[in-house]
């Protein structure tokens, strides 16, 4: 009967004994290089900010047939509304038009009307599906609010982990979360996915998932610290990671498979969110093993064992005295 309740499928065997800490130096070095490169890319060439953060006008139009981008671009290039960008958006008959900020609301409405008229003249029957306009002031407020949300999220995680665990665990978790976040930002800079409110939501979701995964692994390490009082910390960390490996991989794969259809079939509106999530899931799962655990090993190797009782050594027993044997002689000679 007990065999009936055993999982039918396990990603790794129960008795797995992978020595992850052998690659601790390589994991930290690679992570530091990737995070440093990500920070550099975030400033140069910089992130591809969406309309939420840089302002402007976005129009989505649908033509009667496959869109002739060259003809449409020529039709709107002479409207004196600034640098107009056109690109195919999803289907062959859908076009995304981007216009710079026009100033006041009246100027924005006038620019939208002129672009609509030019598109209809170039391709009769063209319909405007949606129009979004964000001014400079609103975009600055949204950008500041998004960064504040990220900072508050990291701060809340720091307080939670610091209260729940020893300081070595807290430093390891927060350092890993920061490194994970920088890698996601570098991914956005390389792929040129728009950095907007949607990707901010994806980053916040990744931070929450990554923190949860590290709490699970750290919990097992703390339990094993109490259970195996004489086991070396390096061996204990490897044991804890192997014991939680099925849970880590299972949760990560479930979330990955949930986000994959959005990336493939969710359209351009959800693609940025989905691809950011997919990359963040992979980074978060690997960082729990190759970044958070090595940091804990370096910080706690001589500290987390402090205060544990040393194993008691049994006192030597006195030799047994045979029955009927006389007592030992004293200083005054044998007793008569």
Concise synopsis of the structure shown:
Belongs to the SecD/SecF family. SecF subfamily. By secondary structure, the chain is of the alpha+beta class.
Give an overview in words:
- Mean pLDDT is 80; it is low at 1-5, 307-313 and 322-336.
- The chain has 2 domains: 18-48 and 139-300, Multidrug efflux transporter AcrB transmembrane fold (Up-down Bundle), CATH 1.20.1640.10; 56-134, Alpha-Beta Plaits (2-Layer Sandwich), CATH 3.30.70.
- It is built from 9 helices and 4 strands.
- It is elongated.
- Strands 2-3-1-4 form a 4-stranded antiparallel beta sheet.
- It has helices at 24-46, 51-54, 69-77, 105-122, 136-164, 167-191, 197-227, 233-265, 267-300; strands at residues 56-62, 85-88, 94-99, 127-134.
- Helices cover 61% and strands 7% of the residues.
- By secondary structure, the chain is α+β, with helices and mostly antiparallel strands.
- It is a multi-pass membrane protein.
- Residues 309-336 are annotated as: Disordered.
- Part of the Sec protein translocase complex. Interacts with the SecYEG preprotein conducting channel. SecDF uses the proton motive force (PMF) to complete protein translocation after the ATP-dependent function of SecA.
């Amino acid at each position: 009967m007990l065999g009936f309740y055993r999982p039918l499928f396990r990603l790794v065997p129960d008795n797995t004994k992978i020595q992850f800490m052998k690659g601790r130096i390589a994991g930290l070095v690679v992570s530091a290089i990737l995070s440093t490169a990500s920070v550099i890319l975030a400033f140069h060439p910089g992130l591809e900010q969406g309309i939420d953060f840089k302002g402007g006008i976005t129009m989505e139009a649908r033509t009667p047939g496959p869109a002739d981008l060259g003809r449409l671009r020529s039709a709107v290039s002479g409207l004196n509304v600034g640098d107009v960008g056109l690109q195919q958006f999803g289907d062959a008959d859908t076009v995304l038009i981007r216009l710079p900020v026009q100033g006041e609301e009246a100027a924005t409405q006038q620019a939208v009307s002129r672009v609509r008229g030019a598109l209809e003249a170039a391709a009769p029957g063209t319909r405007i599906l949606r129009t979004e306009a964000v001014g400079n002031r609103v975009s600055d407020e949204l950008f500041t609010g998004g960064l504040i949300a990220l900072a508050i999220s990291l701060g809340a995680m720091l307080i939670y982990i610091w209260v729940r665990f020893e300081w070595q665990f807290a430093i390891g978790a927060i350092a890993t979360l920061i490194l994970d976040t920088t890698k996601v930002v570098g991914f956005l800079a390389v792929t040129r996915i728009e950095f907007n409110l949607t990707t901010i939501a994806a980053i916040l979701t990744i931070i929450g998932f990554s923190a949860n995964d590290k709490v699970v692994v750290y919990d097992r390490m703390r339990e094993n610290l109490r259970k195996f009082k004489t086991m070396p910390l390096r061996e204990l960390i490897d044991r804890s990671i192997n014991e939680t490996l099925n849970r880590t991989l299972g949760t990560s794969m479930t979330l990955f498979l949930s986000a994959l259809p959005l990336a493939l079939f969710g359209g351009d509106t959800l693609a940025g969110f989905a691809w950011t999530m997919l990359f963040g899931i992979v980074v978060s799962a690997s960082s729990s093993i190759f970044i958070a655990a090595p940091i804990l090993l370096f910080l706690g190797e001589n500290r987390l064992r402090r205060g544990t009782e040393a194993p008691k050594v049994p006192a030597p027993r006195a030799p047994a005295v045979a029955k009927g044997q006389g007592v030992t002689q004293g200083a005054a000679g044998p007793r008569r």
